[in-house]
Design goal:
The chain is of the alpha/beta class. 49% of the residues lie in helices and 16% in strands. The chain is built from ten helices and eight strands. It has helices at residues 19-38, 59-64, 82-92, 114-122, 140-156, 172-178, 188-195, 218-232, 235-263, 271-303, and strands spanning 9-15, 47-52, 71-76, 99-102, 127-134, 164-171, 199-205, 311-315. Strands 7-5-6-4-1-2-3-8 form an eight-stranded mixed beta sheet, sandwiched between helices. It is elongated, with a radius of gyration of 25 Å. The two termini are 27 Å apart. The model has no long low-confidence stretch (mean pLDDT 92). The protein binds uridine-5'-diphosphate and magnesium ion.
Amino acid sequence: MVNQNIPKLLVIFPCYNEEKILTNSIQKFFDFFDSLLAGNYIAKESRICFVDDGSSDNTWKIISSLDDYRVNAIKLSNNFGHQKALLAGMETFNNQFDAYVTLDVDLQDDFRVIIDMLEKYQQGCDIVYGVRDDRSSDSFFKRKSAQKFYSFMEFLGVKTIVNHADFRLINNKALNSFLNFQETHLFLRAIFPAIGLEYALVYYKRLKREEGESKYPLKKMASFAGDGITSFSVKPLRFILITGLFSTLLSILFFSWALIQLLLGNVIQGWFSVIATIMFFGGIQTFAIGIIGEYIGKIFLQVKNRPRYLIAEKIIR
Ligand code: UDP
Ligand code: MG
């Protein structure tokens, strides 16, 4: 790589109950990290930071026993979630490095593209997004649901990078912009595109998780997606408004028709139509209240202004 100012890089790994995979991942990544140093892609002050997101297994034991000058470690006091673990890592080292890469510790995202990311960084990009151009290792359901999610976000007018998760490189400009986003419900993959700045994409093949299980089972994935939607768009509220208007119009039409029938002396029969209408509108109303409730819940959690994570221990070298 031809360059005068080699960046000081920090690679942040969020870890939650990853004892099964950690030792192997560390070994693999350290070899790669050394090759980056040897190839002068990164400065010798570059570091790796593990953020233990309140694991209940031996994750912290493994991380804290790493007696290695390259390793920094943060232990959160509880399980705050993947997004907040990433925030903790980035915020702790804000302005102390030139570039920051976030990467899942199961190494499903091919770390070798960090070289391409660094190249884009050198060319002046503030954010470089890792994009999965081959997701054949993900289940059919995960691929399809992700695809639907991205197109729904687009329909709502929320900017996301299709097939990008949280594997990205940012510089200090992007990091400082990001730290201005004070929301409780973090959804980084829509926050960074909302920042704007200069960005680029790099592509890779998503690999299979080799050990341990995904921390995003269906329920958590659905709630994460729901959080993304309600954190970034108020269009679902507008949808309720339109549904309400539409059903009011419908009921006026129906009422006029019924009145005419009555005046003509025709008897309108049946409890079935009454029950069906009550159930239909009951359903719509409950659904609408549920959506409004989601937003109120978010406001409630936001106004409490609680810390988004708490650090129990830090090892900084
Ligand atoms: N993770 C975390 N806190 C959590 C859940 C997950 O720090 O509450 C970490 C996890 O250890 C991994 C990354 O976030 O490094 C992504 O999780 P996972 O691989 O289970 O997600 P998937 O790849 O299945 O979407
Ligand atoms: Mg994974």
